[in-house]
Amino acid sequence: MGPGREQNVSLALAPQASTQKKKDLGHSL
């Protein structure tokens, strides 16, 4: 349960966040 595990989680969540941003950009346009 060290920083390595946290990094794995953030890496797993990163793609979701980017797709969410793209969706937000599409709505703003």
Give the proportion of residues in helices: over 70%
Rg estimate, integer Å:
13 Å
Tell me the number of strands. Answer: 0
Shape: rod-shaped
Structural class: mainly alpha
* Sequence of secondary-structure elements: H
The N- and C-terminal alpha carbons lie at a distance of: 42 Å
Describe the sheet with the most strands: none
Q: Work out the helix count.
A: 1
Mind explaining what this structure looks like?
Residues 1-29 are annotated as: Disordered. This protein is an all-alpha fold. The protein contains one helix and no strands. It has one helix spanning 3-28. The chain starts with a helix and ends with a helix.
Features:
mainly alpha
How are the secondary structure elements laid out?
Elements: H1 3-28
Summarize the structure.
By secondary structure, this protein is mostly helical. The chain is 90% helix and 0% strand.
